[in-house]
């Protein structure tokens, strides 16, 4: 299993197992932090894809410490489930790609500095992924 993450301005699931994303691939964002999305792609064997999987995404600071900053100062963590559709004609060398777009609400109180989203599927650290980004002050030039 392989997992990749990238950031986008917005993402939405589309018909046919597709994902539509806008403003994809940025690594810098200004305060106040607007709404954005964590986009991910999980590649797995067809047999793996048929099974339900647990996805956990956690926002961490540049030292790897989880950020506590939700409405009630809870851990900024996203839990989701992934599962593919059974496809009967896949060859043994083919992979199934499950994609997801997780909206992140505006107004997360992040100070200027480095951050990263860390994700795991079923707690498997061998297939973990991270996506780093930097929050800039509102008056910064990019």
What does this structure look like?
The protein is mostly beta strands. It is elongated. Strand 9 (113-121) and strand 10 (124-136) form a beta hairpin. The chain has 1 helix and 10 strands, in the order βββββαβββββ. The longest helix has 4 residues, at 46-49. The strands form 3 sheets. The chain has a 5-stranded mixed sheet with strand order 4-10-9-6-7, with no helix packed on it. Strands 1-5-8 form a 3-stranded antiparallel sheet. The chain has a single domain (2-136), classed as Macroglobulin (MG2) domain (Immunoglobulin-like, Sandwich). InterPro entries: DUF6941 (IPR054221).
Q: Helix and strand layout, with pairings?
A:
Blueprint: E1 2-8, E2 10-14, E3 18-22, E4 28-30, E5 36-44, H1 46-49, E6 53-61, E7 77-82, E8 96-104, E9 113-121, E10 124-136
Parallel strand pairs: 4-10
Antiparallel strand pairs: 1-5, 2-3, 5-8, 6-7, 6-9, 9-10
């Amino acid at each position: 299993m392989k997992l990749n993450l990238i950031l986008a301005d917005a993402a939405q699931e589309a018909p046919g197992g597709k994902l539509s994303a806008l403003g994809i691939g940025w690594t810098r964002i200004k305060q106040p932090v607007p709404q954005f999305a964590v986009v991910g792609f999980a590649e797995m064997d067809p047999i793996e894809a048929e099974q339900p999987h647990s996805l956990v995404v956690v926002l961490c600071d540049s030292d790897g410490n989880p950020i506590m900053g939700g409405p009630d100062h809870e851990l900024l963590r996203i839990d989701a489930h992934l599962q593919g559709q059974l496809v009967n004609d896949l060859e043994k060398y083919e992979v199934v790609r499950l994609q997801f777009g997780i909206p992140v609400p505006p107004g997360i109180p992040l100070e200027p500095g480095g951050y990263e989203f860390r994700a795991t599927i079923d707690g498997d650290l061998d297939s973990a992924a991270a996506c780093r980004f930097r929050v800039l002050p509102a008056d910064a030039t990019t």
